[in-house]
Amino acid sequence: MTMTRRALLATGGLGLGLAAVTPGISAAVTSPRRRPRVLLATNEPWGTYHAQPLLAEAAGRGWELVQVVPDRSRVTPTDPVQVATLADVPRADLLVVNGAGDWPADVAAALRRLPLAASSLAYLQPVEAPRAKEFRDRLELATAASPAEAEVFAAHLGLRRRVRMVGSPQTDTLPVHRPQDGRVLVLTSVTRPDPTGGAAPGTQLLLDAAAKLEAAGKHIVVGLHPREDRTLWERYEISPVPSVQASATAECAVGIPGTVFPIVAAVGVPLVGCVDPALTVPDYILDVCSSTIDGPDQAVGAVGNARPARRGAVFAAVGPIGGSARRLYSAWHAAIISARRPFAEPAQAA
Question: What is the DSSP letter of 312?
Protein backbone atom coordinates (compact mmCIF):
# COMPACT_ATOMS: atom_id res chain seq x y z
CA MET A 1 0.00 0.00 0.00
CA THR A 2 1.32 3.43 -0.92
CA MET A 3 0.76 6.19 1.63
CA THR A 4 -0.38 9.49 0.12
CA ARG A 5 1.00 12.84 1.25
CA ARG A 6 -2.37 13.66 2.84
CA ALA A 7 -2.28 10.41 4.80
CA LEU A 8 1.32 10.99 5.80
CA LEU A 9 0.46 14.44 7.14
CA ALA A 10 -2.58 13.13 8.97
CA THR A 11 -0.49 10.52 10.76
CA GLY A 12 2.08 13.10 11.80
CA GLY A 13 4.76 11.54 9.65
CA LEU A 14 5.91 14.76 7.98
CA GLY A 15 9.54 15.11 9.18
CA LEU A 16 12.08 12.63 7.87
CA GLY A 17 9.55 10.42 6.11
CA LEU A 18 8.40 13.13 3.70
CA ALA A 19 11.98 14.30 3.24
CA ALA A 20 12.91 10.78 2.20
CA VAL A 21 10.20 10.43 -0.43
CA THR A 22 10.06 13.99 -1.80
CA PRO A 23 13.15 15.24 -3.66
CA GLY A 24 14.37 18.69 -2.66
CA ILE A 25 12.80 18.75 0.81
CA SER A 26 15.31 18.56 3.63
CA ALA A 27 14.60 17.19 7.08
CA ALA A 28 15.35 20.65 8.46
CA VAL A 29 12.68 22.23 6.28
CA THR A 30 10.01 19.68 7.12
CA SER A 31 10.72 19.38 10.83
CA PRO A 32 7.98 20.74 13.13
CA ARG A 33 10.72 22.83 14.74
CA ARG A 34 12.05 24.30 11.53
CA ARG A 35 12.65 28.02 11.29
CA PRO A 36 9.57 29.88 9.97
CA ARG A 37 10.25 31.69 6.71
CA VAL A 38 8.34 34.60 5.17
CA LEU A 39 8.81 35.80 1.61
CA LEU A 40 8.23 39.49 0.80
CA ALA A 41 7.49 41.05 -2.60
CA THR A 42 7.17 44.82 -2.85
CA ASN A 43 5.80 47.29 -5.38
CA GLU A 44 9.35 48.61 -5.70
CA PRO A 45 10.93 45.31 -6.80
CA TRP A 46 14.42 45.94 -5.42
CA GLY A 47 13.25 48.14 -2.52
CA THR A 48 14.89 46.22 0.31
CA TYR A 49 14.65 49.32 2.49
CA HIS A 50 11.03 48.31 3.09
CA ALA A 51 12.20 45.08 4.72
CA GLN A 52 14.99 46.50 6.86
CA PRO A 53 12.75 47.73 9.73
CA LEU A 54 11.37 44.18 9.97
CA LEU A 55 14.67 42.36 10.42
CA ALA A 56 15.15 42.82 14.17
CA GLU A 57 11.82 41.24 15.03
CA ALA A 58 12.50 38.35 12.65
CA ALA A 59 15.84 37.70 14.32
CA GLY A 60 14.31 37.93 17.78
CA ARG A 61 11.68 35.36 16.88
CA GLY A 62 14.07 33.07 15.07
CA TRP A 63 12.26 33.66 11.78
CA GLU A 64 13.73 34.23 8.35
CA LEU A 65 12.57 37.10 6.11
CA VAL A 66 13.52 36.85 2.44
CA GLN A 67 12.71 39.50 -0.15
CA VAL A 68 11.92 38.22 -3.63
CA VAL A 69 13.59 40.36 -6.30
CA PRO A 70 13.66 40.10 -10.12
CA ASP A 71 17.44 39.61 -10.07
CA ARG A 72 20.43 40.62 -7.96
CA SER A 73 21.62 43.44 -10.21
CA ARG A 74 20.43 46.18 -7.85
CA VAL A 75 21.22 44.51 -4.53
CA THR A 76 24.51 45.47 -2.89
CA PRO A 77 26.71 42.89 -1.14
CA THR A 78 26.36 44.82 2.14
CA ASP A 79 22.56 44.89 2.10
CA PRO A 80 21.36 43.24 5.34
CA VAL A 81 18.18 41.94 3.69
CA GLN A 82 18.36 38.40 2.40
CA VAL A 83 17.06 38.18 -1.18
CA ALA A 84 16.07 35.47 -3.62
CA THR A 85 14.80 35.36 -7.18
CA LEU A 86 11.94 33.27 -8.50
CA ALA A 87 14.57 30.92 -9.90
CA ASP A 88 16.02 30.11 -6.47
CA VAL A 89 13.28 31.11 -4.01
CA PRO A 90 13.34 28.90 -0.90
CA ARG A 91 10.38 27.01 0.50
CA ALA A 92 8.42 29.17 2.89
CA ASP A 93 5.37 29.46 5.13
CA LEU A 94 3.90 32.71 3.84
CA LEU A 95 4.19 35.18 0.98
CA VAL A 96 3.60 38.82 1.89
CA VAL A 97 2.99 41.52 -0.73
CA ASN A 98 3.01 45.23 0.11
CA GLY A 99 0.71 46.17 -2.73
CA ALA A 100 -0.76 45.09 -6.03
CA GLY A 101 1.86 46.45 -8.39
CA ASP A 102 3.19 44.34 -11.24
CA TRP A 103 6.02 42.70 -9.33
CA PRO A 104 3.98 41.56 -6.29
CA ALA A 105 1.26 40.31 -8.65
CA ASP A 106 3.84 38.40 -10.70
CA VAL A 107 5.33 36.81 -7.58
CA ALA A 108 1.90 35.89 -6.22
CA ALA A 109 1.07 34.20 -9.51
CA ALA A 110 4.35 32.28 -9.56
CA LEU A 111 4.04 31.17 -5.91
CA ARG A 112 0.37 30.35 -6.06
CA ARG A 113 0.62 27.45 -3.60
CA LEU A 114 1.84 29.64 -0.76
CA PRO A 115 -0.50 31.23 1.76
CA LEU A 116 -0.72 34.94 0.95
CA ALA A 117 -0.96 38.11 3.05
CA ALA A 118 -0.82 41.80 2.18
CA SER A 119 0.91 44.32 4.46
CA SER A 120 1.16 48.02 3.69
CA LEU A 121 4.75 49.22 4.15
CA ALA A 122 4.68 52.45 2.12
CA TYR A 123 2.02 54.93 1.09
CA LEU A 124 -0.25 54.09 -1.83
CA GLN A 125 -3.09 55.80 -3.64
CA PRO A 126 -6.71 55.07 -2.60
CA VAL A 127 -7.54 53.66 -6.03
CA GLU A 128 -7.88 49.97 -6.83
CA ALA A 129 -4.79 48.65 -8.59
CA PRO A 130 -5.54 46.94 -11.91
CA ARG A 131 -3.96 43.64 -10.85
CA ALA A 132 -5.39 43.46 -7.32
CA LYS A 133 -8.19 41.20 -8.52
CA GLU A 134 -5.66 38.55 -9.56
CA PHE A 135 -4.86 37.57 -5.97
CA ARG A 136 -7.35 39.41 -3.72
CA ASP A 137 -9.43 36.30 -3.02
CA ARG A 138 -6.34 34.39 -1.87
CA LEU A 139 -5.51 36.78 0.96
CA GLU A 140 -5.47 35.25 4.41
CA LEU A 141 -4.82 38.66 5.96
CA ALA A 142 -4.32 42.35 5.21
CA THR A 143 -2.53 44.73 7.58
CA ALA A 144 -1.71 48.43 7.68
CA ALA A 145 -0.12 50.77 10.17
CA SER A 146 -3.05 53.03 11.01
CA PRO A 147 -6.74 53.75 10.48
CA ALA A 148 -6.08 56.09 7.57
CA GLU A 149 -3.52 53.82 5.95
CA ALA A 150 -5.87 50.85 6.34
CA GLU A 151 -8.58 52.73 4.48
CA VAL A 152 -6.20 53.56 1.63
CA PHE A 153 -4.83 50.00 1.51
CA ALA A 154 -8.31 48.52 1.33
CA ALA A 155 -9.11 50.79 -1.61
CA HIS A 156 -5.82 49.88 -3.31
CA LEU A 157 -6.59 46.17 -3.02
CA GLY A 158 -10.32 46.51 -3.67
CA LEU A 159 -11.02 44.83 -0.32
CA ARG A 160 -14.41 44.90 1.35
CA ARG A 161 -13.20 43.23 4.54
CA ARG A 162 -11.27 44.54 7.50
CA VAL A 163 -7.63 45.55 7.25
CA ARG A 164 -5.96 44.89 10.59
CA MET A 165 -4.18 47.85 12.20
CA VAL A 166 -0.75 46.93 13.61
CA GLY A 167 1.21 50.21 13.71
CA SER A 168 4.44 51.00 11.90
CA PRO A 169 7.56 49.00 12.84
CA GLN A 170 9.59 52.15 12.20
CA THR A 171 8.02 53.73 15.29
CA ASP A 172 9.19 50.94 17.59
CA THR A 173 12.57 52.60 18.18
CA LEU A 174 11.89 56.30 17.77
CA PRO A 175 14.71 58.61 18.87
CA VAL A 176 14.19 61.25 21.55
CA HIS A 177 13.65 64.68 20.04
CA ARG A 178 16.44 67.01 21.17
CA PRO A 179 16.34 69.82 18.60
CA GLN A 180 19.37 71.97 17.89
CA ASP A 181 18.73 75.63 17.22
CA GLY A 182 18.65 76.46 13.53
CA ARG A 183 19.01 72.87 12.33
CA VAL A 184 16.59 71.99 9.50
CA LEU A 185 16.25 68.51 8.06
CA VAL A 186 15.47 68.37 4.35
CA LEU A 187 13.54 65.22 3.42
CA THR A 188 13.98 64.34 -0.23
CA SER A 189 11.90 62.10 -2.43
CA VAL A 190 13.14 60.53 -5.67
CA THR A 191 13.88 62.91 -8.54
CA ARG A 192 14.18 60.42 -11.38
CA PRO A 193 12.32 57.12 -11.81
CA ASP A 194 14.32 53.93 -12.20
CA PRO A 195 13.49 50.22 -12.59
CA THR A 196 12.89 49.96 -8.83
CA GLY A 197 10.16 52.59 -8.73
CA GLY A 198 8.79 55.95 -9.74
CA ALA A 199 9.58 59.51 -8.75
CA ALA A 200 7.74 62.36 -7.06
CA PRO A 201 7.59 65.92 -8.39
CA GLY A 202 8.92 68.83 -6.39
CA THR A 203 12.69 68.46 -6.25
CA GLN A 204 13.39 71.90 -7.70
CA LEU A 205 10.97 73.50 -5.27
CA LEU A 206 12.70 71.73 -2.39
CA LEU A 207 16.18 72.68 -3.64
CA ASP A 208 15.14 76.32 -3.91
CA ALA A 209 13.50 76.22 -0.47
CA ALA A 210 16.68 74.76 1.05
CA ALA A 211 18.71 77.56 -0.51
CA LYS A 212 16.36 80.17 0.98
CA LEU A 213 16.61 78.57 4.41
CA GLU A 214 20.41 78.41 4.25
CA ALA A 215 20.54 82.07 3.21
CA ALA A 216 18.41 82.86 6.28
CA GLY A 217 21.02 81.26 8.53
CA LYS A 218 19.61 77.74 8.92
CA HIS A 219 21.92 74.75 9.05
CA ILE A 220 20.69 72.32 6.38
CA VAL A 221 21.01 68.57 6.84
CA VAL A 222 19.68 66.35 4.07
CA GLY A 223 17.90 63.08 4.71
CA LEU A 224 18.18 61.26 1.41
CA HIS A 225 15.56 58.86 0.12
CA PRO A 226 17.38 55.55 -0.54
CA ARG A 227 16.92 56.00 -4.30
CA GLU A 228 17.58 59.74 -4.55
CA ASP A 229 20.43 61.14 -6.65
CA ARG A 230 23.01 62.16 -4.05
CA THR A 231 24.79 64.58 -6.38
CA LEU A 232 21.81 66.95 -6.32
CA TRP A 233 22.35 67.60 -2.62
CA GLU A 234 26.11 67.50 -2.12
CA ARG A 235 26.39 71.23 -1.41
CA TYR A 236 24.76 70.47 1.97
CA GLU A 237 25.56 68.13 4.81
CA ILE A 238 24.04 64.73 4.03
CA SER A 239 23.00 62.76 7.06
CA PRO A 240 25.00 59.56 7.55
CA VAL A 241 22.07 58.01 9.42
CA PRO A 242 18.50 57.34 8.23
CA SER A 243 16.11 60.27 8.12
CA VAL A 244 14.10 59.28 11.19
CA GLN A 245 17.25 59.17 13.32
CA ALA A 246 18.48 62.42 11.79
CA SER A 247 15.21 64.13 12.69
CA ALA A 248 16.01 63.83 16.41
CA THR A 249 18.22 66.93 16.30
CA ALA A 250 16.18 69.00 13.84
CA GLU A 251 14.07 71.94 14.96
CA CYS A 252 11.99 71.44 11.82
CA ALA A 253 11.85 69.20 8.76
CA VAL A 254 10.92 70.37 5.30
CA GLY A 255 10.46 68.09 2.33
CA ILE A 256 8.33 66.38 -0.27
CA PRO A 257 5.55 64.61 1.67
CA GLY A 258 5.94 60.85 1.61
CA THR A 259 6.05 57.68 3.69
CA VAL A 260 8.65 59.03 6.14
CA PHE A 261 6.61 62.12 7.05
CA PRO A 262 4.28 60.47 9.61
CA ILE A 263 7.25 58.68 11.22
CA VAL A 264 9.14 61.96 11.63
CA ALA A 265 5.94 63.54 12.96
CA ALA A 266 5.79 60.78 15.58
CA VAL A 267 9.26 61.86 16.79
CA GLY A 268 7.73 65.27 17.51
CA VAL A 269 9.41 67.22 14.72
CA PRO A 270 7.35 69.97 13.04
CA LEU A 271 6.97 69.35 9.31
CA VAL A 272 6.62 71.67 6.33
CA GLY A 273 5.55 70.03 3.09
CA CYS A 274 6.79 71.21 -0.31
CA VAL A 275 3.84 70.49 -2.56
CA ASP A 276 4.25 70.61 -6.30
CA PRO A 277 0.92 70.92 -8.16
CA ALA A 278 1.55 67.49 -9.72
CA LEU A 279 2.14 65.73 -6.39
CA THR A 280 -0.54 63.28 -5.27
CA VAL A 281 -0.33 61.82 -1.77
CA PRO A 282 -3.00 60.59 0.65
CA ASP A 283 -4.54 63.23 2.91
CA TYR A 284 -3.26 61.58 6.08
CA ILE A 285 0.32 62.40 5.05
CA LEU A 286 -0.50 66.05 4.42
CA ASP A 287 -2.40 66.18 7.73
CA VAL A 288 0.80 65.73 9.75
CA CYS A 289 2.30 68.85 8.16
CA SER A 290 2.26 72.09 10.11
CA SER A 291 1.83 73.79 6.73
CA THR A 292 2.56 73.27 3.06
CA ILE A 293 4.27 75.58 0.60
CA ASP A 294 4.19 75.82 -3.17
CA GLY A 295 6.93 78.44 -3.58
CA PRO A 296 10.46 78.74 -2.14
CA ASP A 297 9.86 82.26 -0.81
CA GLN A 298 7.38 80.78 1.68
CA ALA A 299 9.95 78.43 3.24
CA VAL A 300 11.53 80.68 5.86
CA GLY A 301 8.23 81.87 7.29
CA ALA A 302 6.72 78.37 7.27
CA VAL A 303 9.69 76.88 9.13
CA GLY A 304 9.69 79.74 11.63
CA ASN A 305 6.01 79.18 12.46
CA ALA A 306 6.02 75.37 12.29
CA ARG A 307 4.47 73.37 15.12
CA PRO A 308 4.38 69.61 15.82
CA ALA A 309 1.49 67.63 14.41
CA ARG A 310 -1.61 67.01 16.50
CA ARG A 311 -1.67 63.68 18.33
CA GLY A 312 -4.83 62.68 16.51
CA ALA A 313 -3.24 63.30 13.13
CA VAL A 314 -0.18 61.27 14.11
CA PHE A 315 -2.29 58.34 15.28
CA ALA A 316 -4.39 58.43 12.10
CA ALA A 317 -1.17 58.23 10.06
CA VAL A 318 1.02 55.77 12.02
CA GLY A 319 -1.34 53.99 14.40
CA PRO A 320 -0.24 52.71 17.82
CA ILE A 321 3.38 53.43 18.66
CA GLY A 322 5.50 50.68 20.16
CA GLY A 323 5.29 46.93 19.62
CA SER A 324 4.29 47.29 15.97
CA ALA A 325 6.73 44.76 14.53
CA ARG A 326 5.59 42.27 17.16
CA ARG A 327 1.96 42.81 16.18
CA LEU A 328 2.79 42.45 12.50
CA TYR A 329 4.65 39.16 12.94
CA SER A 330 1.92 37.86 15.24
CA ALA A 331 -0.62 38.63 12.53
CA TRP A 332 1.54 36.82 9.96
CA HIS A 333 1.85 33.85 12.31
CA ALA A 334 -1.93 33.72 12.70
CA ALA A 335 -2.29 33.80 8.91
CA ILE A 336 0.09 30.84 8.59
CA ILE A 337 -1.90 28.88 11.15
CA SER A 338 -5.27 29.79 9.65
CA ALA A 339 -4.15 28.70 6.19
CA ARG A 340 -4.01 25.14 7.56
CA ARG A 341 -1.39 24.15 5.06
CA PRO A 342 1.30 22.23 6.92
CA PHE A 343 3.30 21.97 3.72
CA ALA A 344 3.75 24.80 1.22
CA GLU A 345 6.20 25.15 -1.60
CA PRO A 346 6.82 27.54 -4.47
CA ALA A 347 5.52 26.71 -7.91
CA GLN A 348 8.05 25.17 -10.26
CA ALA A 349 9.66 27.64 -12.61
CA ALA A 350 8.40 27.37 -16.15
Answer: H
